């Protein structure tokens, strides 16, 4: 990511405003409408949460996100490079930095250009 971006992170029960570059696996990040997701994670709280995944999938319809339930086929993953188009929620961070889906895709495309 070229520009500096801050997010609200819950650590040790307290909300901290910090750079996405300081996020760690296991952090809980608050997400809201208009925000571009910077890491990969799983939804742990959702309030009418919908995401535009067209940058990753090409699909133009927004995707409703919900918390994981065993035996359900609900879409509970948030992927880096996508944008929240409606609602709010919280996500548990699963991957950061070069390990995110967005960065792995970029590296694969660069490798193909070589």
Give the arrangement of secondary structure elements.
Blueprint: E1 6-11, E2 14-19, E3 28-32, E4 40-52, H1 54-57, E5 63-64, E6 77-78, E7 83-95, H2 101-113
Antiparallel strand pairs: 1-2, 1-3, 3-7, 4-5, 4-6, 4-7
Number of domains in the coordinates? 1
Tally of individual helices: 2
Q: How much of the sequence is in beta strands? A: 35-45%
Give helix and strand order, one letter per element, not per position: EEEEHEEEH
Shape assignment:
globular
Structural class: mainly beta
- From the structure provided, what is the oligomeric state, counting identical versus distinct chains? single chain
Tally of DSSP β-strands = 7
- CATH superfamily, please? Calcium-transporting ATPase, cytoplasmic transduction domain A
Average pLDDT score = 85
Radius of gyration: 14 Å
CATH class: Mainly Beta
Q: Could you please say which CATH topology applies here?
A: Calcium-transporting ATPase, cytoplasmic transduction domain A
Major sheet size, sense and barrel closure:
7 strands, antiparallel
Head-to-tail CA distance between termini? 22 Å
Query: Under the CATH scheme, which architecture would be assigned?
Result: Distorted Sandwich
Can you give the helix content as a percent range? 10-25%
């Amino acid at each position: 990511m070229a520009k500096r971006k801050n997010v609200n992170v819950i650590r040790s029960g307290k909300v901290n405003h910090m750079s996405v570059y300081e996020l760690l696996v296991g952090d809980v990040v608050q997400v809201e409408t208009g925000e571009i997701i910077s890491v990969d994670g799983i939804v742990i709280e959702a309030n009418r949460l919908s995401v535009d995944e067209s940058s990753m999938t090409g699909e133009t319809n927004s995707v409703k996100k919900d918390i994981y339930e065993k035996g359900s086929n609900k879409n509970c993953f948030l992927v880096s490079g996508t944008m929240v188009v409606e609602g709010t929620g919280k996500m548990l961070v699963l991957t950061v930095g070069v390990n995110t889906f967005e960065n792995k895709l970029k590296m694969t495309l660069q490798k193909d250009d070589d």
